[in-house]
Amino acid sequence: MGKNKLKKFAQNETFTHVIQPKNEEVLNADFHLKGKWNEEFGNDNPIVLELACGKGEYSVGMAEIYPDKNFIGMDIKGARIFSGAKEVQEKGLTNVRFIRTKIDFINSFFAKNEISEIWILFADPQIGKPRKRLTSELFLHRYIKVLKPGGLLNLKSDSDDLYDFTKEESIPEFNKSQNGMSFNMRDDTDQLYEVGIKSFDETMQKVLNIRTFYEQMWLEQGKKIKFLSYQFKKENS
Ligand SMILES: C[S@@+](CC[C@H](N)C(=O)[O-])C[C@H]1O[C@@H](n2cnc3c(N)ncnc32)[C@H](O)[C@@H]1O
Question: What architecture is the 1-111 domain classified under in CATH?
Fold first, then answer.
């Protein structure tokens, strides 16, 4: 492993806002902060998750736009998380945490109704492995265990495959199979910057204009950015 990566890993250990659980703390176990994230932040503000956060551009960017919300970025790659964590430290933001873990363990970290919003930015399309996609039915079932009724699931992607799969397959299949639970579409555009962005209010335009590392790369290659937003509905709640 490169020296630079090792240095970043060592610095992550010093950040109190970077949480790096051991496998045994989450594998068939509840992490000690499950159900206690508001205590960890020291307020009752809504908690927003950025999944596959990479360098955490959305967690940091949204934390500045919404000081009255808390943000948690999750990713397995420590060197990427380091970039966001360092920015959080430099900016003195108190409403951001990062968890270095597999998103597959999401239910070990968060309790029922603990999460208000989920953002998935430029996740790998996982061609040929649909179950591994972060919007597959497998993951949707994990999300509904933590997402509040009325909570949001937002996806920004360059990938036609992931966009089509989410919109045409996994969400409709999930909605069909569920009794009294559904993800209802709020926004859908396959050309966010060409036609979609003007339809959002000013704050949301600012949010959608945050560019992640991968987004910047895809834009430079001329790819069109897609955006999907769903609201989680649960009857009798
Ligand atoms: C294409 S990158 C996008 C990163 C960032 N969102 C961006 O737009 O720059 C995908 C990220 O997802 C993370 N990832 C993919 N599947 C994951 C999983 N199951 N658990 C944790 N991280 C995952 C990878 O480590 C990687 O950082």
Answer: 3-Layer(aba) Sandwich (3.40)
